[in-house]
Task: inverse folding
């Protein structure tokens, strides 16, 4: 089993908004099972129409409501409450939200961290994340619009094609590794570029690559198989799609066997000289598929979700004994990244604390 379960086909379950410019509750209980505490949500403007859009945890005060160009997309990792509700907001009805994956991981935050920025442009600066990422191997970073930015682990030396502005003219999201001292590096071409941490992934669920691995996608205009079976235990992939040319292009990734066809049936743009981080499941043989319209679009494997070695299941019954991990919240509590601490109430009796398992 895996701590993260990726949904093979998501296109048919896209959710729009009924009212514009206000947060609406989205009940995702029909898409994810009981015991889900984190989800990966894809935000996509379809139909050639631009607008503002965002998603957040239920009860969050975040309002990262920003312009998203027509046909572009981004992904967010969000905390889910016990009733499996998140909140969505858009300025028109062409916005679509999709649940891509879900997990019993409880390390996503209710509210984002305080802002990180650089003091000098165009160089990597080390940022301490020790107050936000106890026990983490990687963090979920969100960066503000339009400016070239990249996060990486201290041991990462490859900057090829990664230091680019977001493809969607809005917030960009990426998973970045951190070192044993909870440090990561940030680079931006403006001191007014801000980044925030939304939560973290542990080494039991996610493997960080020291340097991006460029994937071979030879053909244009069709879905191409990509073999990732050499990565032990892989169940989901984090792919940076980087357009190195001077024109917009269509591009996407999906689990092999999926019928999702966003580049084919719904425009799925990667902008010129830009990047977008995408998430997709991997089939049981270790394959994904990639699509590119132009030869200038490159695909980089940044890291991957792995099979669990014996952690949580998602359907609670009886709870076996265990001791909460230091620095981890019990179910019913949340990480408050603004305070760099854990807040909240008493664990739900039917749910295990971190360090316990469902029997």
Result:
């Amino acid at each position: 089993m895996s701590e993260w379960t990726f949904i093979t086909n998501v296109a048919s379950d896209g959710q729009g908004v009924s009212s514009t410019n206000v947060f609406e509750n989205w009940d995702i209980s029909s898409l994810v099972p009981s015991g889900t505490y984190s989800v990966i949500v894809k935000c996509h403007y379809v139909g050639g129409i631009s607008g503002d859009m965002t998603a957040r945890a239920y009860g969050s005060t975040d309002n990262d409501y920003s312009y998203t160009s027509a046909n572009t997309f981004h992904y967010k990792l969000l905390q889910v409450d016990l009733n499996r509700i998140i909140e969505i907001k858009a300025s028109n009805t062409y916005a679509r939200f999709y649940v891509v994956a879900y997990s019993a991981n409880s390390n996503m935050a209710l509210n984002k961290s305080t802002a990180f920025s650089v003091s000098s442009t165009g160089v990597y600066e080390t940022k301490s994340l020790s107050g936000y990422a106890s026990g983490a191997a990687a963090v979920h970073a969100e960066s503000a619009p339009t400016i070239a930015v990249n996060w990486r682990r201290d041991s990462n030396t490859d900057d090829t094609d990664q230091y680019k502005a977001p493809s969607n003219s809005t917030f960009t999201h990426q998973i970045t590794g951190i070192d044993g001292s909870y440090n990561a590096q940030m680079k931006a071409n403006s001191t007014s570029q801000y980044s925030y941490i939304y939560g973290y992934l542990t080494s039991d669920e996610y493997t960080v690559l020291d340097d991006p691995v460029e994937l071979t996608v030879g053909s244009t205009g069709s879905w191409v198989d990509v073999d990732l079976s050499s990565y032990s235990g892989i169940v989901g992939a984090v792919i940076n799609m980087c357009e190195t040319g001077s024109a917009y292009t269509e591009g996407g990734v999906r689990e092999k066997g999926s019928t999702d066809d966003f580049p084919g049936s719904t425009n799925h743009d990667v902008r010129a000289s830009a990047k977008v981080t995408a998430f997709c499941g991997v089939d049981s043989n270790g394959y994904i598929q990639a699509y590119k319209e132009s030869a200038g679009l490159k695909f980089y494997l940044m890291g991957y979700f792995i099979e669990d070695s014996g952690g949580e299941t998602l359907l609670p019954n009886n709870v076996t004994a265990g001791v909460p991990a230091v620095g981890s919240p019990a179910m019913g509590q949340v990480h408050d990244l603004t305070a760099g601490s854990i807040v909240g109430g008493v664990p739900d009796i039917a749910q295990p604390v971190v360090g316990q398992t469902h029997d």
